[in-house]
Amino acid sequence: MAVMHLQSHPSLVEQAYDAIIDEIADGALAPSTHLVQEVLAERYGVSRQPIQQALLLLKSDGIVQDAGRRGLVVAPLDMQMMRDRYQVRATLDALAAGLAARRCAASPEIAQQTKRQGEHILEVGFDAVAAGAIKAMIAHDVAFHAFVYDASGNPMIRPTAEIHWRFLRRVMGEVLRKSEPPISIWQQHRDILAAIVAGDPNKAEARILSHIQNAAARLAANAPTGDDNAHEKHGAQKGRTEAADPDDDVRLAPRMRRPAGPGAQAGGGWP
Amino acid sequence: MAVMHLQSHPSLVEQAYDAIIDEIADGALAPSTHLVQEVLAERYGVSRQPIQQALLLLKSDGIVQDAGRRGLVVAPLDMQMMRDRYQVRATLDALAAGLAARRCAASPEIAQQTKRQGEHILEVGFDAVAAGAIKAMIAHDVAFHAFVYDASGNPMIRPTAEIHWRFLRRVMGEVLRKSEPPISIWQQHRDILAAIVAGDPNKAEARILSHIQNAAARLAANAPTGDDNAHEKHGAQKGRTEAADPDDDVRLAPRMRRPAGPGAQAGGGWP
DNA sequence: ATTCCGAATGTTGTATTCAGAATTCAAACT
DNA sequence: AGTTTGAATTCTGAATACAACATTCGGAAT
C-alpha cells in the first residue's frame, strides 16, 4: 500500500487509530494479521510513537489482541462474540427507544423535533438503499441508531453501544451483501421511529428488539467463514470510484469524546 | 506523596493506569485537578511515556478530559451522569440476571454451580458488612455483580458494564458511608441470587432492577457536593492500617483483557 | 497607570535512541 | 539426521530529546 502522509491537528494518534480501525473493518487487514509497529509507522509516514498509542487504544477495545509472547494481531472475528454483542446492543437499543418514546410522550416539542430529525435520516437511508451503496448503507444504519441513542436523553447510552458497533461494523458489510435487499431494514427503522414519536415505549422497545434480532439472525445465516474472509471485497471495491460523497463512508464518533458537554441534556430524573 | 517505584512486568502503562484511577476513585486526586504528565511521572518514578499512555486510556474512558487548550483534568463528578450510568447499568444487570436465570432453568448442573459460587460471595459480603469495612464492601459488591455478569453466559456484558463501574466507584464510598447500614443491599443480593438459581428470569430481572434503582436513589439522596468532595476521607483512612487483606481493596478487571478466551463459554444460541 | 508586545517558561505531541527480550538461523555436537 | 546451543536479528517497552505552541511575566510605549 502507498505511503500516505497524515497531517496534524486531529492528533496523529487519533488519525492512526481511525486509519487502522478502518482497514480492519473493511478487511484490508484480515483477522489474525500480525501488526508490527514499524510497518504501520512507515505506511502512515509517522514515527512508532503514535502508532503504539493507537494500538494501545485498539487493544483496550479488544479490536486487536496480543499474540503469544510478542506483538499484536487483528482479533479473529468470532461469530459467537458477534452474537453476544448483538444481544447487548439489543438491550441498549431497547432502553434507548423506550426512553425516547417516553420523552416524546412527555413533550410535544421534543416529539416534533425527533420526528423531523428522524425522517431526514430515513430519507437519506432509503436513498442509500436505492443506490445500492453498501458503505453508505452501513453509515446511515449507524446514523439511525445513534439518533435513537441521542433521542433517549441519556448520553451514556451512545458511547456504551458504540464499542459494539466497532465490532459489528466488521461483519455488516458481508451480511448486507449476501442477504436479500435490505429495504426491510429501513421499513423497520420507519416503524421504530413511528412508535417513538407516537410516545409508545412498549411498542418502540418491541420493534427495535425484533429489528436487531432480525439482524443477528441474518448474520448467523450468512456467517463468514470462521477466521479469515473478506479479501476479494477490497480489490472489488477499489473499482467503485472511491466515495466522493462525504457521508458515503462509515463514521463512528472519534475515539476521544467528553462524556457530557455542559448542558448536553436536561434529562428528567429516572423513574 | 512519597515517590514510589513501580516495577515491570505488568507494564508500566497498566500500573500507571491503575495507580491513577485508584487515586481518582478515592479522592486523592480531586475532581478538576490538573494532571501534568511530568508531575505524575516523577511521582511514580517513571518517564513521561507510560504516563502519557495511561492518560490516553483514562481519557478514552472519560475519567479525565482535556481542559481548555492544554492539559487534562480529572473529570468533575457529575451527578446527572452518575444517574445516567446507573440507568445503563440497570439494563445490563437485568439482562445478565435474566440470562443467568434462564441458564439455571436449562441445566441443573449450572444451577448448582451458580448456587455454590453465589453463596460464597454472599458469605464474604455479609462478613464485610458486619466488619463495617467500607472498601471491602465496595469490593464485594463489585464481585457480586461481576458474578452475575459471568453467570449470564454472555461474556460481553461484563466489560460493557465495567466501564460504568469505574465511575460509580467514585461515589459508592461516599454513599455507603452516609446512608443507613447496607445490610439491606446484601439481603437484596441474596434474593437476586435465589431468583436466578430458581430459574425465574422475570423475578431475577425485577429484583436486580429494583436493587439498582434503590442504589441510584440512595445516591441522589446523598449527592456529594457538586464538584469537589471526599477529602477528609483520605486522611482519615490513612490511619486504618492499610489493607492487609488482599480483597480489602477494590479490584476491577485490569484495563487490558482479551474479549473471549478460548472456550470461555458454551453459550447457547440467543432466542 | 494601563495596555501591548515580546521574551522566558511550561507543557504537550512526536521523534529518536536505548535496552532487554523473543525469535530465527545456523553451525556444532551427539 | 536430529537436536541443541548460541549469536544475529527483530521487535517491543521505556527513556530521552526535540519542536511547536500556549501561557505568563516584564518592560516599554501611550
Notes on the structure:
The structure is a homodimer of 271-residue chains. Residues 1-5, 226-248 and 257-271 of chain A have low confidence and may be disordered. Chain A has a three-stranded antiparallel beta sheet with strand order 1-3-2. By secondary structure, the first copy, chain A, is mostly helical. Chain A has helices at residues 12-25, 37-44, 48-61, 79-106, 108-131, 134-151, 157-178, 183-197, 201-221, 232-238; strands at 34-35, 64-66, 72-74. In chain A, helix 2 (37-44) crosses helix 3, helix 4 crosses helix 6 (134-151) and helix 4 packs antiparallel against helix 9 (201-221). In chain A, a hairpin with a 5-residue loop joins strand 2 (64-66) and strand 3. Chain A folds into two domains: 12-74, Winged helix-like DNA-binding domain superfamily/Winged helix DNA-binding domain (Arc Repressor Mutant, subunit A); 79-226, Four Helix Bundle (Hemerythrin (Met), subunit A) (Up-down Bundle). Chain A is built from ten helices and three strands, in the order αβααββααααααα. At the A-B interface, helix 3, helix 4, helix 7 and helix 9 of A face helix 3, helix 4, helix 7 and helix 9 of B. Chain A binds a DNA duplex (30 and 30 nucleotides) through residues 8, 11-13, 36-38, 46-50, 52, 69-71.
